[in-house]
Amino acid sequence: MPEARDLVAILTRRGETVATAESLTAGLVCATLAGVPGASAVLRGGLVVYATELKTTLAGVDAQLLADHGAVHPEVAAQLATGARTRCGATWGLGLTGVAGPDPQDGVAPGTVYVALSGPGVDTVRELAEGGDRDTIRVASVRAAFALLGEHLD
Known about the structure:
Blueprint: H1 4-14, E1 18-22, H2 28-34, E2 43-48, H3 52-57, H4 63-69, H5 74-88, E3 92-98, E4 112-119, E5 122-129, H6 134-153
Parallel strand pairs: 1-2, 1-3
Antiparallel strand pairs: 3-4, 4-5
Helix pairs in contact: 1-6
């Protein structure tokens, strides 16, 4: 699994950029990438869309989708990724939504996470079922986002 520094190096070499729209991770993916020297060459920005309505107003997630299925849904993650990419003008967009716990959200169990990637010829969503406390679930979500991006950069 690639580390943040690996992704920054690969994106730099390829002349590509990345942006995020994050719910349960609240900017942790973006902050982790920004911690790498040289990240400014590839990191366009991030949208922290912790509140459900911000998923629509900032990232462009369909309000009816949210009303029908709630915030923790694979299509919500996909639309977050697309929103990050298009609204930040990046080559790649990462979208993350899920339940870090300790309590369920809208009937969805803690540890349920959807990570999505949008980019050239790629629109994909991965479902995770993580165990552990909030921090463990959030860190695992960041790793999953990096892994998903890394797979499509190889």
